[in-house]
Design a protein that fits this description.
Rossmann fold; 7-stranded mixed β-sheet; 16 helices; about 30% helix; glycoprotein; transmembrane helix; Put_SAM_MeTrfase; EC 2.1.1.-
Length: about 600
């Protein structure tokens, strides 16, 4: 009995000793949560506000249609004709403010709020509605993209030729002056996966006038052409005028706005990117966005230098050394030579985890990125001098293990499990919903599905549902995922679609007049607390083609205010019910009018 009492006494003493420790642990945890709340990222705070705003818009009487947001009528003046090709975040007028090292001046540098334009960007003198697809792939109106410099400099390489009122695109390029068709035929011989649906998405860095991407469309490969803003060539503007997917961008000091493992293939045809400089950091970025098992294709220096070096104004020794340096760098990143012939060399990114495990030593360069570096972070994210290793848990996300196109469009990819609430059933439900919506859209906007609409942007997609629903129509969709929302863009790419990250508080990376249809779904309900509605709509006006359309699916609370601003931008709009005929949400169907700059226009 005494021993039992002593045992109980001992247990009580230990319990009394444990209680203060436990309290201390709880106190420390509480303090850490408190400090974490103070120092949490601005993005997390904003995401919390987004949820609150959405909740208000859906449930609060204050946000009902009866209490709809009202604003005073507004009109916008015309910008100067000097702003006909205005790209706010890549504006040549502001280049001198930024450094020239590594071409940082070509990256995104958006103007501060007090410098934002509140005027309508005019079309060039003599602008006409674009030639319709597929004829636009071969020709466009000269006055729509009036760049004489590129015509004079590149016509001998068959990039394009001016004939009368049009630019013609013979399909040539610096490395394929006799035509892109034969060039791609050889490439397909070297990469048979390009023929059977294994390769679906591609990126063309330094795209010229996007003839490579244009040719691949007929072969079932969706290519996103990438080039920086420039004063002379307007490569991206030519691509979009032709109806070929493209976006402004440059590999410099920041990551491209795509998640890791996005593309099945990357291509550079004499794109003038110094791949081996700065420790190969540009090639490391291509490695990041290229899917394991994906292909990197290079033509131009130093490939086939034995027969080409004299035309490159260099020596055979210099080119031999350059090729050896490039091969060593690619090998150090787990690339292997896949095929070479004539002017084309192909490397394949390894999906073998064993190769990447060898890159973890203290003296290895480049080493694999540590766990603190988020592979998909790509909105104003600095380039990292490290190799992104394939995620071991992903067994069916490499080239060759993904379902082939078009089956992959309708099969839930592995990375959907990374999305909160994401699952195969969620994707199936989302697709079913968008099929119904797309049918309704075609009723209220019959131009969808015709040659009147080619370039489409879904301004705040989730899984690319609208693009999937319209996949059989003669159009392509730029799927935009907000940098402040859940990261669903990997799912979009895994399905065989293309897109980009973006923050709609800023201007998009494209030229004016480049999209035929803009679609948004609840964008203002989600972002109006961060982004001024007026500036978002002015940006929509900038990138929308004259006579182009906008489908604005939004809470009824915002509808009248949006329509008021749209009227001030010279748009013609009317309201339509959604497919469910609900009162809390409506669709504003708008068309931008074609107008020309006034002779007295002086707005800057």
């Amino acid at each position: 009995m005494k021993q039992k009492d002593e045992k109980n006494q001992s247990q009580s003493d230990r319990a009394l000793k444990i209680i203060p420790v436990t309290l201390l642990v709880f106190a420390l945890c509480g303090l850490s949560f408190y400090l974490g709340g103070i120092f949490c990222s601005e993005k997390s705070l904003l995401e919390g506000k987004i949820v609150q705003e959405l909740s208000k818009a859906v449930s609060s009487p204050e946000y009902s249609a009866e209490n709809a947001l009202q604003i005073k009528p507004v009109t916008f003046s015309e910008c100067s004709i000097d702003y006909q090709d205005y790209t706010p975040c890549t504006d040549p007028r502001r280049w001198k403010k930024y450094g020239y090292r590594r071409l940082t001046f070509l990256e995104r540098h958006c103007p501060p709020l007090y410098e934002r334009k509140e005027c309508l960007v005019p079309p060039p003198v003599g602008y006409k509605p674009p030639i319709r697809w597929p004829k636009s792939r071969q020709e466009c109106w000269y006055r729509n993209v009036p760049y004489d410099w590129i015509n004079k400099q590149k016509s001998n390489q068959n990039w394009l030729k001016k004939k009368g009122e049009k630019f013609l695109f013979p399909g040539g390029g610096t490395m394929f002056p006799k035509g892109v068709g034969a060039y791609v035929n050889l490439m397909q011989d070297l990469i048979p996966e390009m023929r059977d649906g294994t390769v679906r998405t591609a990126i063309d860095t330094g795209c010229g006038v996007a003839s490579w991407g244009g040719d691949l469309l007929d072969r079932g490969i969706l290519t996103l052409s990438l080039a920086p803003r420039d004063n002379h060539e307007a490569q991206v503007q030519f691509a979009l005028e032709r109806g070929i997917p493209a976006i402004l961008g440059v590999i410099s000091t920041q990551r491209l706005p795509f998640p890791s493992s996005s593309f099945d293939m990357a291509h550079c045809s004499r794109c003038l990117i110094p791949w081996t400089e700065f420790g190969g950091i540009y090639l490391l970025e291509v490695h990041r966005i290229l899917r394991p098992g994906g292909f990197w294709v290079l033509s131009g220096p130093p490939i086939n230098y034995e027969h080409r070096y004299q035309g490159w104004n260099t020596t055979i020794e210099e080119q031999r050394a350059a090729l050896e340096k490039l091969q060593d760098l690619l090998t150090s990143m787990c690339f292997t030579v896949y095929a070479t012939q004539d002017d084309i060399a192909v490397w394949q990114k390894s999906s073998d985890i064993g190769c990447y495990e060898k890159l973890t030593g203290p003296d290895v360069y480049p080493a694999t990125c540590d766990d603190s570096i988020e592979q998909d972070a790509a909105w104003y994210t600095p380039l990292r001098p490290c190799v992104t290793s394939p995620r071991q848990k992903l067994k069916r996300s490499s080239v060759g293990s993904l379902p082939k196109w078009p089956q992959r469009l309708n099969i839930a990819p592995e990375r959907i499990s990374d999305v909160p609430g994401g699952s195969g059933n969620a994707l199936k439900s989302d697709d079913s919903n968008w099929k119904v919506r797309a049918q309704h859209y075609k009723k209220i906007l019959p131009a969808i599905g015709t040659d009147k609409i080619r370039n489409v942007m879904d301004m705040n997609t989730v899984y690319g549902g609208l693009a999937a629903a319209l996949i059989d129509d003669p159009l392509w969709v730029m799927n935009v995922v907000s940098s402040y929302s859940a990261n669903t863009l990997p799912v979009v790419f895994d399905r065989g679609l293309v897109g980009t990250y973006h923050d709609w508080c800023e201007a998009f990376s494209t030229y004016p007049r480049t999209y035929d249809l803009l679609h948004l779904d609840g964008l203002f309900a989600a972002e109006s607390h961060r982004c001024h509605m007026k500036y978002v709509l002015l940006e929509m006006d900038r990138i929308l083609r004259p006579e182009g359309h906008a489908l604005i699916r939004e809470s009824s609370y915002f509808m009248d205010a949006i329509e008021t601003i749209a009227k001030g931008m010279r748009w013609n709009c009317h309201k339509e019910d959604t497919e469910n005929s609900g009162e809390n949400e409506k669709i504003l169907v708008c068309q931008k009018t074609l107008w020309y700059a006034s002779s007295t226009n002086s707005t800057r």
